[in-house]
Specification:
The chain has helices at residues 14-20, 42-46, 52-77, 79-90, 99-129, 137-158, 161-168. The longest helix has 31 residues, at 99-129. The protein has seven helices and no strands. It starts with 13 loop residues before the first helix and ends in a 5-residue tail after the last helix. The chain has a domain at 52-167. The chain is 64% helix and 0% strand. It is mainly α.
Length: 173
């Protein structure tokens, strides 16, 4: 059972071994005959581990996003009732009547919401694995996804006479 297996770091260059050990690289005099090539450990140095606070912020923001997605499911699946409640809160005299469009666009908005969250999650995890800052990505993902979802919701709203009436003549008060 004595198979010769390489020891940890045996195949690594001396520069890579020093870098992994946390030691500074050895200074080499530049040669005049050839341009300096990047060291094999340059890629390792470029990928710095993300700080713990940034990872924590990313995780918290992704958690809040997941709660938002899950809490939004009922409202999008019954978008006509949600838009009817919106009309009531705005003080409109009529009620929402564009049911077919609301059913279709509610499902589309939900799919867009899921896709936006999934993409944001994947990009965030990918950046963390590469050692890059990712705390800002859930914020940008939220804004971009909400713009797309708002466009989806506005389609049945703009096709409804009660919403158009509010746009033309807002209720008093």
């Amino acid at each position: 059972m004595s198979v010769d297996q390489p020891q940890y770091g045996e195949y690594a260059s001396p520069e890579e071994q020093r870098l992994r050990a946390g030691l500074p690289p050895v200074e080499q005099a530049p040669s005049a005959s050839a341009p300096a090539a990047p060291s094999p450990g340059a890629a390792v140095r470029a990928a710095r581990p993300a700080n713990g606070a940034g990872r924590m912020i990313t995780a918290v923001l992704l958690g809040i996003g997941l709660v938002n997605v899950l809490m939004s499911i009922p409202g999008f699946l019954d978008l006509s009732a949600t838009l009817d409640q919106t009309l009531t809160m705005l003080g409109a005299e009529g009620s929402f009547s564009n049911y077919a469009a609301a059913r279709t666009w509610g499902v589309i908005a939900l799919i867009v919401l899921f896709a936006g969250y999934a993409l944001t999650l994947w990009l965030s995890v990918h950046r963390i694995k590469r050692g890059r800052s990712s705390w800002w990505l859930p914020l940008v993902g939220f804004v971009v996804t909400m713009i797309a979802v708002s466009i989806c919701i506005s389609v049945p709203m703009m096709g409804d006479p009660a919403f158009n009436q509010i746009l033309v003549t807002p209720p008093a008060g």
